[in-house]
Amino acid sequence: MKEKDVITQEMLSSFNEALDNFEYIDSNGRMDLEKFCVVLSKCFYADGIIHLSPKPIDVFQLLIELIQAEAQAQQNYDNLMALWVQRQKLVDWTPEFQDFYPDRARTLIHGAALLMVFDRWVLGVGNYLMDIPRSSTNNMYDYWVKPEWTHVSKLLIGLHNTVWKAAKEVDKSTIEESGFSSFEALALALKNDTYYEIAVESLKKRRDIQKQALFNIQQAIDSGFYLEAIALQESLISNSIYNFLKAQNKSLQSTSFFDMLRELRSSKSNHLSSTESRKLFKNVNEWRQKRNQAIHGFITIQIDEIGNGLTDFKSLSEQTANAGSKLASDVFAWYEQESVNFTLKERSVKKPKVN
What we know:
Elements: H1 9-20, E1 30-32, H2 33-46, H3 56-73, H4 77-84, E2 85-89, E3 105-110, H5 111-129, H6 150-178, H7 182-192, H8 196-222, H9 226-247, H10 257-265, H11 275-296, H12 306-338
Antiparallel strand pairs: 1-3, 2-3
């Protein structure tokens, strides 16, 4: 779209469809920087604010400078820049590509580099390139985007969600080795108003204790101490549910296993968004009922039935302990996967009002 163009509803419809299908990161894990910068400018035009749009070349250069600074900070400039920023000549260039690739080449940005600097990049577009002062009431990096700028918002929300998804995958892949989720550590540090490093040490210590508990559970089962194993399983599962609910800023009236599980599974709270997680905690609730039978059942056995009752009690306890062992491991794994969501959230696009 050129400045002199008369924008029509058909053009807007076509442009919105293109935004819906915009590819932020290609199958090789790279972003086409020229394309993004030009499309951002077109979004300003579609919103009727082309006069506010920074030049695509300035948006382009801002990201490159941020990536260069990051490579310098890591003291491996040449190798990192070779990986993070690649130039690709377009052998099939035609005049219709003039707006996007005037020098007949594209710049591809590695997703890892984008992940490290994208928030500073978007912030800089508004703060430095558009000279819009930082807001005292909105500390988000995209504070400068007004709600009525529907196309600019749509593009940047899409970028946010793409990076959010990539960040989650990176965080998930490193939890086993690092012993903590970086997003959970950040959330804990912010909530407790403490240093990030202190939060990390706290999470590492908790994870070590939880892993030791899983080991002790198996030892108890192998030794025939089924009630001990069940008690440890309940403790581990309850602790994971408690930490999850607290991360959601829930004010818990009760921390009993039953009440926390009920809150977690409540349809109103909508904490369990996937079919797999709902099924997992349905199984946990059924196990809780068997746990009650295993712990309290022997007390109600009649004196003249104590022989058979003891056999049945031992069998039920063993079955419950074995089932609980798997559930405790599954809940532990569920919590680790969920912990990456504790700070960086996916955003939804607000649909413009229709008169």
